[in-house]
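Deadline looming. Please check this record:
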Amino acid sequence: MLEITLNLYEDKKDPYYVQLYRHIRQEIKSGRIHAGTRLPAIRRLSEHLDISRNTVEAAYLQLVSEGYVESRPRSGLYVLKLEEDFSFLEKVTNQEPGRQDAEEIVETKPAASPVLRCDFRNGTIDLSSFPFSVWNKISHQIMQEYTNSLSLYGDPQGEPGLRHQLAGYLRQSRGVRCSPDQIIVGAGTQQMLLLLCQLLGTERQPVAVEDPGYNGARSVFSELNFPMVPIPLEEDGIDMEYLMKSEAKLVYVTPSHQFPFGMILPIHKRIKLLQWAAEHDRYIIEDDYDSEFRYQGRPIPALQGLDKSGRVIYMGTFSKSLLSGIRISYMVLPESLISKYKDKKAFLEPTASLIHMQTLERFMEEGWWEKHLRRMKNVYKKKHAFLLSAITRFFGERVKVIGQHSGLHIVIEVNDGRSESELVRKAEEKGVKVYPTSPYWITFDTQLPPRLLLGFGGLSENELEAGIRLLKEAWT
């Protein structure tokens, strides 16, 4: 069976379906995918590439409309034989006319990549501290006790027991006011956003997003044809005056730990935001993606807990606090949207694993979740402090740290005259991966000094030390 693998880039202007369509078209033109080949099923390819089925379907429809593939009833999509041979294009790509014949082209090997010595990738977690023995024991118990029910899909809204545990946890830890009936559990924040957008039914109505902000949310809005209104940030978060002057019908925010810059939305702005939503019949999507990890000061209650008008849609995830691979996220809907969801529920299937949901429910019920969370707070607090100390020791005041005191990443500002791309390249030459923040912008200001994102959750103190030392060598 044909497998299609490619890199999909969120920072490109082209949406995923265009990138996928162009990749397959080029593979067909070059002859690397032969006539008569059956393309992977939509569901299989969406799972393989970790993208939505709608994205794959849109790419396939474009290929059908342009005559590269055809749909055969009850069989699938098959590549058609092209009237023109495009394979010669592969030999002369980027070749200037008259410079050399195709026979004279010498294949050159790419330069060897440096050995990766430290990867400051965001979103990684400390697997060494996870209680695998406890998790596996509970999972095994679930498999034995619920053998018959595991043949079923489960509740599309998420298992009732897990939603009950979540409601209690969110009330105590985040000040979220909700009943289990208001919670929907699913496989990832993007999947939750897809479902939410379908419920809101506001296609092609403007949605305000923080600029810079989480590009995973932007990709969902873009795929569903929601025009985005970029709202600039001030030192204390989203610019409320700019938002109130916009025509946005919906706003997506990260008020407790702005992504990627880490500021916390103060109470006076939170009240203004809630007033804006209540007075203009708007909704606020509050993404509380890593609120568990705050290293200084008191915990910041969720915006949802202040909401008296039912205008806040609260979202959270276990990807940062538990295991990314179990793919469990959730959202809390206001009462006004629950009825809409109930109307659609009969036609929906659960997206999160039944086994994982039931395991997590018991993990929380037996108190393991609280123990694990307390431990991880201490683990990440120590790593966070160590990273800041290493930056100070090696760089002094030559770099500025942005967004400290919470979360699993920091941002550093390097104002030495070099560009963002040059700093990233120099780091890679030393075997260190740091990540640009420019992809998180819609209206990127090239005059701003370069700001780079450093994730630290999955790195040891030795790796953090080595990584910062190598960065100093790379940027000296």
Q: What stands out?
A: The longest helix spans residues 368-395. The chain has a mean pLDDT of 86. The first strand starts at residue 69 and ends at 72. The CA atoms of residues 240 and 272 lie 7 Å apart.
